[in-house]
Amino acid sequence: MTIQVHDKRFEPxxxxxxxxxxxxxxxxxxxHDLEGKKPLFIAILNGSxxxxxDIFKYLTIEAEISxxxxxxxxxxxxxxxxxxxxxxxxxxxxxTVVILEDIVDTGKTLSQFLPQLQHQQPRQLxxxxxxxxxxxxxxxxxxxxxxxxxxxKFLLGYGLDYDGLGRNLPEIYQLSE
Length: 177
Ligand SMILES: O=P(O)(O)OC[C@H]1O[C@H](OP(=O)(O)OP(=O)(O)O)[C@H](O)[C@@H]1O
Ligand code: HPA
Description:
Elements (H helix, E strand, L loop, with lengths): L2 E3 L2 E7 L1 H19 L5 E6 L3 H10 L5 E11 L6 E6 L9 E9 L3 H11 L5 E9 L12 E5 L5 E2 L15 E4 L2
Parallel strand pairs: 3-4, 3-6, 6-7, 7-8
Antiparallel strand pairs: 1-2, 2-10, 4-5, 9-10
1-O-pyrophosphono-5-O-phosphono-alpha-D-ribofuranose binds next to strand 6 and helix 3.
């Protein structure tokens, strides 16, 4: 069934059961790989709130989670755009850190933000992303745990919004042609 949000129509793309199944698999892999490391998960708001909640509840190991927002502002010519994290209070030094993102699209967000986290010298810095659009990615990012590789179409639901709406949908929709 297609749905209407603002002025656009969207069609079902990834069903809720398929999403949950894949997220369970990712949580299983993470639990296996990071057992005993007491990883710190960092979820990037707003979009990742549902993915973060689901993957975190399927983990079977000791782990911490923290939520941050990113703010982007124009830096100097040499620094380009600068992204700062709002709400990051944990010390990452020596920690196993897993960034949780709903989607890597152009890759700009993470390719700018990950080097800043590296400055804090975590022991390991990993990325878990639910969705990746390889055909849209102009700034390559290493994704260690990926849910789905998707075509370059605008997606909606499960945290992803179109102009503020649609984040509450439990499945993922794509823009109708
Ligand atoms: O790979 P990129 O092209 O940088 O795109 C990915 C980013 O875009 C979305 O966030 P957005 O800035 O829309 O904010 P939101 O999560 O609050 O919706 C998404 O949650 C990622 O953080
Ligand atoms: O496809 C998308 N949909 C919603 N928000 C997004 N942010 C990056 N890509 C997308």
